[in-house]
Amino acid sequence: MKERAMYVLAILVVFFAVIANGGVVYQESFNGAAGDYFVSFQPDITTDAKKWGGTVNYVYTGIGTTTSTVNNTRSSFLDFIPESGRKYTLSISLRMNPQESGQTIPFAVGFISTNNASSTMNWFQNADSPWIRVASTGLGAMADKATVSGAGYLAATNVNTYTIELDTTGDQWVASYTVNGYGIGSTATYTYTVNPSIEGVGFGMSGGSGINMTAEIASFELSEFVPSETVFRERFEGSAGSGFISSEPDVTTGATTWSGSVNYVFTEEGSTTSTVNNARSCFLDFVPQSGEKYTFSAFLRMNPQESGQTIPFAIGFISADKASSTMNWFQNTDSPWIRILSDGGLGAMVGSAQQSGTSYSSVTNFCLYTIELDTTGDQWVASYKVNGFNIGPAATYTYSINPDIVGVGFGMSGNSGVNMTAEVALFELGALSMYSDPSYSGWIAGYSVGIATGMTDDADGDGLSNLAEFGFGGDPSDVSNVGYQPSFTIISDSGTSLLEYVYARRTDAEAHGLTYSLEQTTNLVSGVWSTNLGVVVVETGDLEAGVFESVTNRITLGSEPQQFLRARIGSE
């Protein structure tokens, strides 16, 4: 027994491969000065210092606006190769400018295949990748060099958000196409028989030689943020004169029904009316959970003011201190909401206080209003946008005391007896989560470790490599959190001395690309180690339900005067 102190336990970290991070891959707000180029420059958020490629003829004509001037077709792109087993969302918010010189002004946005011919719109037209064609005459969901589905869309000269979701989790990849939450055409999903070979994402515009083709682009984003759950979705497709209070939305959780004023009725498909008592609101029961990210959005158009009213419209979260079925739900609460006026004024609100505001001249066109509520931290954070633009200079609010939210909804306000109307096309609440990357790199991206992201790095200086923290449940940014560390003891079984060694193992180690093993040697000079020699796994047990399990190993102690043992974590 006196040899007990001679057993040395060590953790060896081995680096094999790293898979790309989850989360936001690219994000661009196009906030350049007039006359500046953006090709050869990095977007606002980029991976591996990637830069915009493509034609140098793309320049800013103003903040958020790009121009293509010559050679009929011009495109810009960012390098990107999707991986199997993932879900990607590519979106762009833009407004097509009125057609010039009789051009239909086709605009393309999407994924770019390796069979592109040149720095033109042939990247899209001659490719098998999924993309969206936007023209003043209609929309097309495109794949395999053909139109998968199409739709006429008269509001193409308003700001709209076009989205392609690419699902590579199955053997056959699937692309889905939407505009402002609506599927593009009757067949808005395409399943590939032969998966495309994609090498980038981008956009392009086409016009006759020498024609200036312009589009106002508010945002461009590629991410692995996908809806993990649609909590509510309502398209308001009721017949004229029918009410929707007490009915379920199109998509709902827990059979929740609309509550609020019975005075809300459809005046036509997509339009709602509030008639009396100055202020009326409707809501759906909803209590957010900590540790989540929620996106609440409405796609609507304010009707011109009636009888001199400014027609305030409210959309947002509703707190438990709501007073009645009126707009006091928003004004007298501490929850985040957006105030919309038909004269173009927007407010990012917390209760009755406006945190940030802006004028937005197109509120009588269809606009997409969004509140993102992040409850992952101790202090919740609300962000406010319209068509991808921040609402005012202070469009993010951090709570010192988190709100007590019990619902989501909308409301309109007007003088008694005045009909206040708004055409609400879509109302949706989604629970968002970053795609869970089953790899080391997806895990390390969730911590603030600066440039010390490598497996062999020790970001917090606690003596454990990042990979060891990953494999044993530690925090690479916290020196005091080293996770579940191995333990050992010497036992006797029928007169035989055994070393019992227990380590923690992820229950999904295979999905994470992790391998665990024990190695032994009789000296530290030769560098010769035996793997799992004489190691017997006697039991496993729950350590952290669904996350970690304990693995108990036994090794017979031989006659050697000293033996050394180390746990090895590998990443494939």
Provide structural commentary.
It comes from Tichowtungia aerotolerans. This is CBM-cenC domain-containing protein. The protein has 572 residues and is mainly beta. The chain has 3 domains: 1-21 and 437-572, Immunoglobulin-like, CATH 2.60.40; 24-223, Jelly Rolls (Sandwich); 229-434, Jelly Rolls (Sandwich), CATH 2.60.120.200. Helices cover 3% and strands 46% of the residues. The strands form 6 sheets. Strands 2, 4, 5, 7, 12, 13, 14, 15 and 17 form a 9-stranded antiparallel beta sheet that branches. The radius of gyration is 29 Å and the shape is globular. The two termini are 39 Å apart.
What kind of sheet is the major sheet?
9 strands, antiparallel
Tell me roughly what share of residues is in helical segments. under 10%
Low-confidence stretches: 1-22, 433-437
Distance between the ends: 39 Å
Beta-sheet strand percentage?
A: over 45%
Content-based structural category: mainly beta
* Mean pLDDT over the residues: 76
Shape: globular
Using the coordinates above, name the CATH class of the largest domain.
Mainly Beta
Beta strand count: 40
- Which second-level CATH architecture of the largest domain applies? Sandwich
Helices, by number, come to 4
Question: CATH topology of the largest domain, anyone?
Answer: Jelly Rolls
Tell me the count of domains: 3
Rg measurement, Å: 29 Å
